[in-house]
Design a protein that fits this description.
There is one protein chain. With 175 residues, this protein is of the alpha+beta class. Helix content is 42%, strand content 18%. It contains 9 helices and 8 strands. The chain has helices spanning 8-11, 21-37, 56-62, 89-93, 106-113, 122-129, 135-146, 161-165, 167-174, and strands at 41-44, 47-49, 75-78, 81-85, 97-102, 120-121, 150-152, 156-159. The strands form 3 sheets. It has a 3-stranded antiparallel beta sheet with strand order 3-4-5, with no helix packed on it. A 3-stranded antiparallel beta sheet has the order 6-8-7. Strands 1-2 form a two-stranded antiparallel sheet. The longest helix is centred in the N-terminal third of the chain and has 17 residues, at 21-37. It is globular, with a radius of gyration of 19 Å. The two termini are 26 Å apart.
Length: 175
């Protein structure tokens, strides 16, 4: 759990009894196992659902799908471009969009796909970018497979629950 500045929790954080990083990791792995036994499968780094009830909304983001956001502070990704409206209602009514630049490149696609438990499907990558995954990426993935932090079968690669705990570190190395 991350406590954000400007929240009531943050102003009282010294009074809270929060688990340390090791305890957080144990609780996360317990939750993955417990929820799975209850019929809630993990489908994304921090989301669980009964089969067929996964969030299509969030999953679209992790697959680099196009979406249009409408309203103050709404974000969009369309035709490879990211943009958003200002937070204020007045700016929104004046149709003030901010260009956030391009998105959906191969590195972003890999990073977002690996948030999902299904992971990075190699054929989907090749179809989208018209090239195979770099051999160096396959070698790095194999290193993490040997450490028990990833799984790969020649068709796809994904994090294990323990790998999700350190996914940011692994992604930095992979990309």
């Amino acid at each position: 759990m991350k406590i954000e500045e400007g929240t009531p929790f943050y102003s009282n954080k010294e009074l809270l009894s929060l688990p340390d990083e090791d305890e957080q990791a144990e609780l996360y792995l317990f939750a993955v196992d417990y929820l799975n036994r209850l019929g809630y499968a993990q489908y994304e780094i921090s989301n669980f659902a009964q089969p067929g009830f996964e969030s299509r909304h969030n999953t679209l983001y992790w697959r680099c799908g196009a979406y249009i956001g409408i309203g103050p502070a709404a974000h969009s990704f369309y035709h490879g471009k990211r943009f958003h409206y200002a937070r204020s209602m007045q700016a929104f009514c004046n149709d003030l969009l901010t260009d956030d630049g391009s998105g959906g490149d191969s590195e972003e696609y890999i990073m977002l796909a690996l948030r999902l438990c299904e992971g990075l499907v190699f054929a989907d990558y090749e179809q989208r970018f018209q090239k195979p995954l770099p051999a160096e990426l396959h070698r790095k993935i194999e290193k993490y497979v040997k450490l028990g932090l990833m799984e790969a079968d020649g068709q796809h690669a994904c994090f294990t629950p323990k790998g999700f705990l350190v996914s940011n570190m692994i992604l930095t190395d992979l990309l």
